[in-house]
Design a protein that fits this description.
Helix content: 25-40%
CATH topology of the largest domain: Aspartate Aminotransferase, domain 2
Largest sheet: 7 strands, mixed
Bound molecules: ligand P1T
Length: about 375
């Protein structure tokens, strides 16, 4: 089955068995608990909604299929998925290697909670070069955490090359695939052990649900994650499970349009005299354009750029843009714009931001699926105000 069909049918098959209502859309099962006949007899499949819920099950099944995984697990946010993963697979004294460019909230979770409170050591490395990952491995290393393309600088790491290093050293490789969605990149097929998404972004696609997920095929790792999903309880609600099942149905058509719009805008900005540099994996000027073509089937809808000048020019631009809402988050049908150093990545220490090349005036856009002519016209009028 092709992904366009999986997106619509997997996990949402009408129940035509006796007593089934045949809904063509997954019902929202709001029950917190499920009855049984006798205390010593198993239930009809569900006991308590933290442990398992039919709406969430449908979503988890679809999520697994989309990444070519055996198992999918859904959580209350992307960070809840990350927290569950760390709680399940690490203990005090363990060491994690992470890309030095990550969503600010992921870095805050790793450094401020797991490092400061639980003594998990974290090395942030420039993973564009896989040798930097290998060089950071020590006797306590357990896990490699990659985001590719990264947020917000759209740096890439070679998933297959890092997966080889992880295998050779018996380490778990996790890839945060949020920016590409399951439509444009499938890290498990490139050798990663676990894929993570903030479903808040492209997977749901409409900026109206917060969620996260993990997909994997290893039975042993799955057992640990499933145990913690229930034991720690950071589960996705039935309503949000329904929302993501609904949003996913259009993932393929949305991603194609996000990409087409982003490519046109990236080219337009690159040629604009008031723009200093444009970062988009689909541009030939992106230093890792060849790797992007190799491991992704599209380039996505995220662009970062800098204007000539500095913060004052960036502010004028942000104050005058109309169709791009000045807001955190990404991956929805509507275009969004933000300034990472002051917004999504404000929790990353300034020295760390400077080290990775994240300037205060960098602007990040999440290109929506509006008509691209309107978006370009809007950018041009805001640029004229500078
Ligand atoms: O917001 P939440 O659903 O908890 O997901 C966290 C997260 C994880 N990974 C990546 C790559 C992300 O971009 C995010 C959330 N990012 C934003 C809110 C943002 O504006 O970048």
């Amino acid at each position: 089955m092709k992904i366009e069909t999986q997106l619509i049918h997997i996990g949402e098959e009408p129940n035509l068995k006796e007593g089934g209502s045949g809904d063509v859309v997954m019902p929202i099962h709001l029950a917190s608990t499920f009855a049984r006949q006798k205390v010593d007899e198993p239930t009809a499949g569900y006991e308590y909604s933290r442990s398992g819920n039919p709406t969430r099950d449908g979503l988890e099944k679809r999520l697994a299929t989309l990444e070519g995984a055996t198992y999918g697990l859904a959580f209350a946010s992307g960070l809840a998925a990350e927290t569950t993963l760390f709680l399940s697979l690490l203990k005090t004294g363990d060491h994690v290697i992470a890309f030095d460019d990550l969503y600010g909230g992921s870095r805050r979770l790793f450094s401020r909670i797991f490092h400061e409170n639980f003594d998990v050591a974290i090395s942030y490395v420039d993973a564009r070069n896989p040798e930097n990952v290998e060089a950071a491995i020590n006797d306590n290393t357990r896990l490699i955490w990659m985001e590719t393309p990264t947020n917000p600088l759209l740096k890439l790491c070679d998933i297959a090359a890092i997966a080889e290093i992880a295998k050779a050293h018996h380490l778990i490789l996790v890839v945060d695939n949020t920016f590409m969605s399951a439509y444009f990149q499938n890290p498990l097929k490139l050798g990663a052990d676990i894929v993570m998404h903030s479903t808040t972004k492209y997977m749901n696609g409409h900026s109206d649900s917060v969620g996260g997920c993990l997909m994997l095929s290893d039975d042993h790792l799955h057992e640990k994650l499933r145990f913690t999903q229930n034991a720690a309880g950071a589960i996705l609600s039935p309503f949000d499970s329904f929302m993501i099942l609904r949003g996913l149905k259009t993932l393929a058509v949305r991603m194609k349009q996000h990409e087409a719009n982003a490519l046109a805008i990236a080219h337009h900005l690159e040629a604009h005299p008031k723009v200093k540099r444009v970062i988009y994996p689909g541009l030939e000027s992106h230093p890792q354009h060849d790797l992007a073509k190799k491991q992704m089937s599209g380039f996505g809808g995220m662009i970062s750029f800098e204007l000539n000048g500095g913060l004052a020019e960036a502010n004028t631009f942000l104050e005058n843009i109309r169709y791009f809402a000045l807001a955190e988050s990404l991956g929805g049908v509507e275009s969004l714009i933000e300034c990472p150093a002051l917004m999504t990545h404000a929790s990353v220490p300034k020295a760390a931001r400077e080290q990775i090349g994240l300037s205060d005036s960098l602007i990040r856009i999440s290109v929506g699926i509006e008509h691209v002519d309107d978006l370009i016209e809007d950018m041009d009028q805001a640029l004229r105000q500078i």
